[in-house]
Amino acid sequence: MAGMDFTLTEENEMIRATARQFAEEELAPLAVKMDREEKYDPRVTRLLGDHGYMGMEIAEEHGGSNLGAVNLAIALEEVNRVCASSGVTMSVQNGLVNGPINKFGTPEQKAKYLPRLTNAEWMGAYCLSEPVSGSDAAAMVSFGEDHGDHFVLNGTKRFITSGLHADLYVLFSRTDRSAKPSRGITAFIVERAFPGVKVGKKEKKTGLRGSDTVDIILDGARVPRENVLGEVNNGFKIAMDTLDAGRVGIAAQAVGIAQAALDAAVKYAQARQQFGEPIANFQMIQWKIADMATRVEAARLLTYRAACLKEKRLPHGKEASMAKLFASETANFCADEAVQVHGGYGYVGEFPVERYFRDARITEIYEGTSEIQRLVISRAVLK
Ligand SMILES: Cc1cc2nc3c(=O)[nH]c(=O)nc-3n(C[C@H](O)[C@H](O)[C@H](O)COP(=O)(O)OP(=O)(O)OC[C@H]3O[C@@H](n4cnc5c(N)ncnc54)[C@H](O)[C@@H]3O)c2cc1C
User: What are the phi and psi torsion angles at 41 (to 5°)?
Assistant: First the structure.
């Protein structure tokens, strides 16, 4: 009788090993530089594209590697273990941009856009949030007026990851003010080059400083009708479905940051001597390591399970929210404990744990705050 198997396949192990080597050799120097300079280095897009990390769930005919959601989660974990800014870039491109175009796009849209995204010639961004609408995304006020063969969009999209360098936006706007909020929103594929699309202010952030977060301004942006993604006024479903998938990516990001914090704490605890012996000999430090290691493992299992369901095209909304909630809290717990294990050296810039601590914080906020994840989970459990 076939039992439950918690081991990774040879392919999974190979993906992990190659992603780890890639991240440590190619991304590590950029991670420190981007964090210090507080700006994205476009070489990251090129590197991720050249190594095949920008189209992991897309079929070969559209330039992807078709490796599936579990391999994507493993690769994301490894990239984020080294650089969370590169990690969010990769997660957004795979989950929030390729994902909805692949699932809801017409054959023409897929043929036109996916090859450019999967080979990283183009960078993508996902534009849902607005100044007045965050958790309550359906309350957005940007508006797309129907002019027959094209729409004219006006409004501001806020906090857009990768927005500064993106060539393409999967973007949501209200198109019917009389309908119930969630029934009057349309998804568009908006090219940066379309007239009336502008980049606004760039945010100064606590962490994830190597990822640019900007406003995207729609100033009479002209979007051809053929760039409607899915059906007119049915875009909110696409937004929510995309977030279910994207949350698996953020869960993997959080597992990666948590593992980095654990690895750093172990290394430091074995090297640092106080009272004549390594601090790893002290039981209170050992407890911290044990708690961190256990939570990382639990977060990883929840993440792989959600990824597994996604790969099998089974419902995974609740599981993705559970993974995202638990993994993001784990990343923050581990980063906090890792700083503690480093003592004063954890609070200054000399060791990477200070960056992990700042980077971990966002995982509890974007793609749905922890409060919103608890709402999604409790609704599914109580229904
Ligand atoms: C660095 C960064 C990158 C981002 N990238 C993107 C991106 O690429 N694309 C994009 O569209 N958006 C992006 N966002 C936006 C992000 O998704 C939102 O910030 C997030 O969804 C929360 O919205 P808000 O900031 O408006 O907070 P609010 O929704 O105003 O929430 C404020 C507080 O109230 C709580 N709250 C709200 N409603 C409820 C409720 N019903 N029950 C209990 N508590 C509640 C929240 O949990 C939170 O604690 C990004 C944000 C940041 C900071």
Answer: -105, 115
State the DSSP string of 148-161: SSEEEEEEEEEEEE
- How far is the first Cα of the chain from the last one, in angstroms, to the nearest whole number? 34
pTM (2 decimals)? 0.97
The residue to mutate among 159, 202, 216, having the most atoms of ligand 1 within 8 angstroms of its beta carbon, is 159
| Confidence (pLDDT) at 371 | 98
125-233 — its CATH code?
2.40.110.10
Return the number of other C-beta atoms located less than 10 Å from residue 208's C-beta: 28
Which tokens in the block code for residue 300?
């990883």
| DSSP label of 234 | B
Whether pLDDT at 264 is above 70: yes
How far is residue 161's CA from residue 158's CA, in Å, rounded to a whole number? Answer: 9
Q: Which residues contact 137 (CB under 8 A, 6 or more apart)?
A: 128, 129, 172, 236, 239
Is 367 among the residues known to form the active site?
Answer: yes
Domain ranges across the chain: 10-122, 125-233, 238-382
DSSP-derived letter for residue 363 is G
**Yes or no: domain 10-122 corresponds to CATH 3.40.50.2300:** no
Give the 3-state secondary structure of residue 140: coil
For 174-212, what is each residue's pLDDT tens digit? Answer: 999 999 999 999 999 999 999 999 999 999 999 999 999
How far, in Å, from the CA of 373 to the mean position of ligand 1? 11
The answer to whether residues 352 and 81 touch, using CB atoms and an 8 Å cutoff, is no
Please tell me the chain's helix, strand, coil percentages from 3-state DSSP, rounded to the nearest 5.
55, 15, 25
